[in-house]
Amino acid sequence: MARTQDVVELILQDHRRMEELFHRMRSVEADRAAALEEFSQLLIAHAQAEESEVYPALKRYRNIDDEEVEHGEHEHDEGNKALLDLLQVEEVGSEEWDEKLEELVKAVNHHTDEEERTILNGARENVAMERREELGAAFLEERGRQLKAGCGSLDNVRRVVGA
Fold first, then answer.
1. What is the DSSP string of 105-161?
2. Rounded Cα gap, residues 114 and 77, in angstroms
3. CA-to-CA distance for 91 and 11, rounded, in angstroms?
4. pTM for this prediction
5. Distance between CA atoms of 119 and 68, rounded to whole angstroms?
6. For residue 39, which of 21, 57, 63, 51 has the smallest C-alpha distance?
7. pLDDT tens digits for 107-116?
8. In the structure, how many helices (H) and strands (E) does the chain have?
9. Which range is least confidently modeled, 5-19, 57-71, 130-144?
10. Cβ contacts of residue 130 below 8 Å, gap of 6+?
């Protein structure tokens, strides 16, 4: 993928990577546990970076709906809870694991679809490229910090969810 600093493009790149990981987690030929581990790291780092660096900045723009931003945060909570439910299933590939995976896919896909149509399109239309690049740099820095800290571990996901 092209190296960009535009926060909109960076978020979209993460969304596409999550979709790829969903395909790997669904495939009996793939290392499903490894795909879940990568997904867990990415989802938590991505959401934490959005909530700490991107969403607060976008709320300042008149033409970006604060309710959509707050709804996005609520949907992060739902995705994190679905992730925790999947991480807590002991047998990868079991019927329960597949059920929890589909709940996670549904929660995350719902969020990414809404976010792309509302928040990210609003950012494209109302936020200057220079500011989007500043937000992109902050997003990448926080995302990297989260990844380095092992944010997708079961213990940390429990902490994030409040379980």
1. HHHHHHHHHHHIIIIIHHHHHHS-HHHHHHHHHHHHHHHHHHHHTTTTSHHHHHHHH
2. 15
3. 31
4. 0.93
5. 7
6. 21
7. 999 999 999 9
8. 8, 0
9. 57-71
10. none
